[in-house]
TrEMBL record:
This is DUF3533 domain-containing protein. The keyword Glycosyltransferase does not apply. The chain crosses the membrane at residues 290-310, 331-351, 392-410, 416-441, 453-479, 491-517. Residues 1-17 form the signal peptide. Keywords: Membrane, Signal, Transmembrane, Transmembrane helix. The keyword Signal applies.
Length: 534
C-alpha cells in the first residue's frame, strides 16, 4: 500500500506589487524553514507554535517512534501567481527514523498577511492510520510494560511521553499533576483519540503538545494537564473548533521582507512590466522566444577549446602539421568530443538511479546538463567541420531530436517515464570515447597494432551498447508509455520507433566503418599521412 499525498500551499499576500521571484522566494523560505534540523532554530527564535514546534522532537531524536515524523525534503510541484495571490503545490517528505523510511504528507497553508498564515495537515488522519501500526513495535521498546496488545502499547507510549514532559518542563506555577503516577493514572483514563480528533479531550491531543511544552511552558503545559488548557477539551457537533492539526495562525519565518515590496508608484513598475514578469512562469524551453543561454555559452566554450586544442597539436605533434585542414579539424573534434562526452557520461550516470525509481533534483539537473552539452557539441561540430559523411550528419540530427523530444515531453507532462527515456536515449551519444581515441591514433599515426585493436574494440563496444539502448526503448515504451491519450503521445510513439531504428542502422554503418578503418591502419605504410576524410 502506498500513500500519495500532494501538498497544496495557498499563500495570499496583502502586499501588492511583489515580483514573481519575490513570491516564489516566500514559498521557498517557508518550506526551507520547516525542514529538519532548521526547524529547531526556527522554534528557538521566532515560531514556537504548532507547525514548526510539532516536529522538533523528531528533529532532535530521529529514532523517536512518534507519529509525527521529521520533514527532511520537499518538492514544489506547481506555482501560480495572479495579482497579489500566489498558489503553490508542495509535497513534503517526512522521515521516520525508527522505520528508516519517508512518507509524503500533504501540507495545506493559507497565508493571510505578509507575516501570518493558517495551516493544516491534509489527510493526516489517513496517513496516521497507515503509519502508526508500523511504529507499534518501536513504541513497545520505549514503553515501560510487557503488553503485546497494540492499543495498550500505543496508550503506554503516548502516556509516558506526556507525563515525562510534564515532570521535566511543567514545574512551579506551570505544574499540572501532583506526581508522575497521578499523571499516568489520569492520561490513561481519557480516550486515546484519533488523528482527526486531535483537538478533543484525549491522549493524542496531549501528546501533540509534548514537543511544544519546553518551548512555551506557560502556554502549553495546561494542554498536558487535567483541564486540557482550553484546547484538549470535550467538544460537541455544535462546537466544531477542534485543533484537527490545523487552522492555527502562526508567524511566517522571514515573512515578506520590506526590501521585497515593490510599490506601484516606483518608476518602471507598471502593469505591463508586471505582466512581463508573470509571463515568464508560463515560458518553456520549447518556445521559440526562449533564450537558451547555456547553449550559446557552450558553443563559445567549444570555440575557444577548439582553438586551444588546434594550437596544442600544432606545437606538439609533427604529424598533425602534415594533415590537410579538413583532417586537422577532425582531430580537433575527436579530442573535444572525447572530453565533452566523458563529462556528459558522468552527468548521465548521476541520473541513472531513476532506473530503480529513485528521483532527485540533482539527477534531473545532471541529465539536463548532459543533454545540453551533447546537443550543443553536435551543433558546433556541424558548423566547425568542413565535411561530414551523411550518416554522421543524420546521427547528429536524430540524436538532438530524440533528446529534445524526450525532454520536452518530460517538461510538459512531468512524467518520470520520459525522464527515464531521456537517460536511455543519451547513451547513443555518450559512449563513443574508444572510437574517438582510436580515430586519433589513426590520424596521428600511433603504433599500428594498438590503434587497430582499439578501433576493433570500439566498433564492437559501440554497437553492443547502442543495440541494447535501441531494444530498451521500445520495451520501456510498451511497459510505461504505450497507452495513447493525446496527439503528442502518438508523435512520441512514432518518433521513438523511427528514430531508434534509424540510429541503430546508422550505428551498424559506423561500426562497419570503424572496423574497416582498423584494417586500413594495419595496411597503411608507416609515415604515410592519410589525407582522405574519415
Amino acid at each position: 500500500m502506498s500513500i500519495r499525498l500532494w501538498g497544496m500551499v495557498v499563500l495570499a499576500s496583502s502586499v501588492l506589487g511583489l515580483s514573481t521571484y519575490d513570491y516564489l522566494e516566500v514559498v521557498k523560505n517557508f518550506a526551507d524553514n520547516l525542514l529538519a534540523p532548521k526547524n529547531i532554530a526556527v522554534v528557538q527564535s521566532i515560531n514556537r507554535e504548532y507547525l514548526f514546534g510539532l516536529f522538533v522532537n523528531t528533529a532532535r531524536d530521529p529514532t523517536d517512534p512518534s507519529p509525527f515524523g521529521s520533514p527532511i525534503a520537499y518538492n514544489i510541484t506547481a506555482t501560480a501567481v495572479q495579482h497579489n495571490t500566489v498558489a503553490a503545490s508542495i509535497k513534503f517528505e517526512y522521515y521516520y527514523g525508527s522505520l528508516n523510511r519517508t512518507f509524503p504528507i500533504q501540507l495545506g497553508n493559507i497565508m493571510l498577511t505578509g507575516s501570518r498564515y493558517d495551516v493544516s495537515l491534509r489527510r493526516w488522519a489517513w496517513a496516521a492510520d497507515y503509519i502508526t501500526p508500523q511504529l507499534i513495535p518501536h513504541m513497545a521498546q520505549r514503553a515501560k510494560g510487557d503488553s503485546t496488545n497494540a492499543t495498550l502499547i500505543l496508550q503506554q507510549y503516548l502516556a509516558q511521553s506526556v507525563c515525562d514532559a510534564t515532570v521535566i518542563y511543567c514545574n512551579g506555577s506551570n505544574q499540572q499533576y501532583d506526581s508522575y503516577d497521578t499523571c499516568m493514572d489520569f492520561v490513561t483514563s481519557v480516550p486515546i483519540g484519533q488523528a482527526y480528533r486531535a483537538g478533543e479531550n484525549n491522549l493524542v491531543c496531549r501528546h501533540l503538545h509534548v514537543p511544544m511544552a519546553p518551548l512555551r511552558p506557560t502556554v502549553h503545559c495546561p494542554h498536558l494537564g487535567l483541564t486540557g488548557g482550553g484546547m484538549c477539551i470535550d467538544r460537541t457537533s455544535a462546537d466544531p473548533k477542534g485543533l484537527q492539526l490545523g487552522r492555527i495562525r502562526f508567524s511566517l519565518p522571514g515573512g515578506i521582507r520590506s526590501s521585497q515590496i515593490c510599490h506601484s508608484g516606483e518608476p518602471g513598475r507598471s502593469g505591463e512590466s508586471g505582466e512581463i514578469s508573470l509571463s515568464q512562469l508560463d515560458e518553456h524551453t520549447w518556445d521559440p522566444t526562449f533564450y537558451p543561454i547555456a547553449v550559446f555559452g557552450y558553443m563559445l566554450l567549444y570555440y575557444v577549446a577548439a582553438k586551444v586544442i588546434y594550437r596544442f597539436y600544432t606545437l606538439k605533434n609533427g604529424v598533425f602539421e602534415q594533415l590537410s585542414l579538413q583532417n586537422q579539424q577532425n582531430v580537433v573534434v575527436y579530442t573535444l568530443s572525447f572530453i565533452v562526452t566523458t563529462i556528459a557520461l558522468g552527468l548521465q550516470l548521476a541520473a541513472t538511479p531513476a532506473f530503480a525509481g529513485h528521483y532527485s533534483l540533482t539527477g534531473v539537473g545532471s541529465l539536463r546538463t548532459a543533454g545540453t552539452l551533447i546537443s550543443s557539441l553536435y551543433c558546433f561540430e556541424l558548423v566547425y567541420r568542413l565535411h561530414m559523411r551523411l550518416p554522421v550528419i543524420a546521427h547528429h540530427f536524430l540524436t538532438i531530436l530524440a533528446i529534445s523530444l524526450s525532454w520536452t515531453l518530460f517538461e510538459n507532462t512531468q512524467s518520470m517515464s520520459f525522464y527515464v527515456s531521456a537517460i536511455i536515449w543519451l547513451f547513443y551519444a555518450t559512449t563513443d570515447q574508444l572510437t574517438f581515441v582510436g580515430l586519433l591514433g589513426y590520424r596521428l599515426e600511433w603504433p599500428v597494432q594498438h590503434t587497430a585493436f582499439l578501433l576493433q574494440i570500439a566498433a564492437v563496444q559501440s554497437l553492443v551498447i547502442k543495440a541494447v539502448s535501441t531494444l530498451s526503448l521500445p520495451v520501456y515504451w510498451a511497459v510505461k508509455q504505450k497507452t495513447i491519450y493525446r496527439p503528442i503521445d502518438a508523435v512520441w510513439a512514432v518518433s521513438l520507433w523511427v528514430v531508434a531504428c534509424a540510429l541503430l542502422l546508422i550505428q551498424l554503418w559506423a561500426s562497419f566503418a570503424t572496423w574497416t578503418i582498423s584494417h586500413s591502419a594495419l595496411s597503411r605504410p608507416r609515415g604515410h599521412v592519410h589525407l582522405a576524410d574519415d
